[in-house]
From TrEMBL:
Protein topology in the membrane: Multi-pass membrane protein
EC number(s) on file: 2.7.8.-
GO molecular function: magnesium ion binding; phosphotransferase activity, for other substituted phosphate groups
Protein name (Swiss-Prot/TrEMBL): Phosphatidylinositol phosphate synthase
């Protein structure tokens, strides 16, 4: 859903990317540093119950990580490896965030909600894998009500408010994420199935025997 604003976001980040590019920091280095910062903040602060400060640290590094694409465009260092690294590091960051939430909730005595956080982690991995696998097979798989950006925003906003003492907000957010992630997986399965079925129908039509005269 938030993919629609990416062109606008790209134009906003380009001037910042030009400034960062002068430091000669490579896009891949930005990706790795951003991921390490997110993972460190999530795994060091969330398990200790520091949900507000953890959210601030994670958000700062998520924003920093967003500069890798802008720097790559400015310096002309766009590469397939860079895209691969970025996607892989995104999965690492997501795993760290939801693992940190799960551990923090478990230590706080909220075992059922920790289980929901675990489900959100697994569902998020399936959402991403479904798209990657589909595109690897030649299908398009851009559908989904809750892609990575949406899931990340909901989780971090809820964690931040939870850290400020707002009741139920994190529980509601995690349950909503669990449902939306499940729906997104179903949407992607349906989209790929429709394309596969259409392709099979067309191939079958091409190879069908001629009717007898």
């Amino acid at each position: 859903m938030l993919n629609r604003i990416r062109p606008v976001l790209g134009r906003v980040l380009t001037p910042v990317g030009q400034v960062v590019a002068r430091t000669r920091v490579s896009p891949n280095a930005i990706t790795v540093i951003g991921t390490l910062g997110v993972a460190g903040g999530a795994l060091a602060l969330f398990p200790r119950g520091e949900f507000f400060w953890g959210t601030l640290v994670i958000t700062a590094f998520v924003l920093f990580d967003m500069l890798d694409g802008a720097v790559a465009r400015v310096t002309g260092k766009i590469s397939k490896f860079g895209a691969f690294l970025d996607s892989t590091m995104d999965r690492v960051a997501d795993a760290a965030i939801f693992s940190g939430l799960m551990i923090g909730l478990y230590r706080d005595g909220q075992e059922p909600l920790a289980g929901v956080a675990l489900y959100c982690l697994v569902a998020g991995v399936v959402v991403s894998y479904a798209k990657a696998r589909a595109e690897g097979l030649g299908y398009t798989c851009d559908v989904g009500i809750a892609e990575r950006a949406e899931r990340l925003i909901v989780a971090l906003v809820a964690a931040g408010f939870h850290g400020l003492g707002v009741p139920y907000v994190l529980a509601v957010a995690l349950w909503v994420l669990a449902v939306l992630s499940t729906v997104t997986v179903a949407q992607r399965f349906a989209a790929v199935y429709a394309q596969a079925k259409d392709g099979a129908d067309r191939d079958g039509a091409k190879t069908a025997p001629e009717p007898a005269p």
